[in-house]
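re: ur msg from earlier - yeah i can do the adenosine monophosphate complex, just paste it... oh wait u already did. ok heres what im feeding in:
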Amino acid sequence: MRIIQSVHAFQRWRRKQANEKGLIGFVPTMGAFHAGHQSLMKRARRSTQTVVVSIFVNPLQFAPTEDLDQYPRPREADLALCRKMGVDVVVLPSQKEWYPADFQTSVVVSQLSKQWEGAKRRTHFQGVTTVVEKLLNLVKPHQAFFGQKDYQQCRIIQQMVEDLNQDIKIVMCPTIRESDGLAMSSRNTYLSQAKRQQALVLYQALSAGKKAIKDGEQSVPKIEKIMHRSLKNHSGITVDYLAVCHSETLEPLKKAQGKLVLLGAVRIGSVRLIDNLTVKASASPIKSS
Ligand code: AMP
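and the outut:
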């Protein structure tokens, strides 16, 4: 496995790949790997011939009040996992080279970035799209792999690649969960044991919403009420949003029909968690009495 830290060295490696047969798969990450990241690498390994992983804690996507300094950076363990997963190249850019003092370009996906996470974290998606576009331009992969865990992020990147005519297949890979259902996240390490237990209610709320839709409920206010009810008896949890949305535009729906996604975000103390479930609404709605 090669570890490449400079942009020029990576570009040299990439030029040589032009003569090689096969597809290049890319998994962009911020490190602190868990089974979610591992599943993306596995999928990339299965679908493409050369697998590139980047590890870069991107300051542009953190607000000044957020956890940039605290974000875990277990570099040796991360590299060991990449080796185990058969990754070919790890890109480890330095902050100084990636964002020099005169850096001044940004990429904005205007509509999809406005709602949900974008409304709560104003500069977050601009930071994400800027770093991902810069990485895609460097790596020039045929396919890039993202987790459904960050559903809105993945939709934004799909839109960006389409808008900018980039010939890259964006693959959304399923969310990997703990055995009790909690979505794996590098930020779960911030949770105390008690909060770790509480964190599960987000998945339970989304699951209750999904079940109601599968049982034929189409009224969005009723579905939202069901999701909120799951959280009622848990003190110390603040809901940022629990929403029934169109699976592509992410617009809130009035009626739960067709392919949709339930998006949720809660705060437990200072820890913020997001999760989502996709649902295909039942064709036969509940008859209102
Ligand atoms: P991050 O390192 O948090 O920026 O995440 C890197 C990639 O891993 C993103 O595409 C995430 O959506 C994906 N990811 C994070 N958590 C999970 C999970 N539990 N299951 C699947 N993919 C995940």
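cool cool. Residues 48 and 216 are 40 Å apart (CA to CA). ping me if u need the other ligands too
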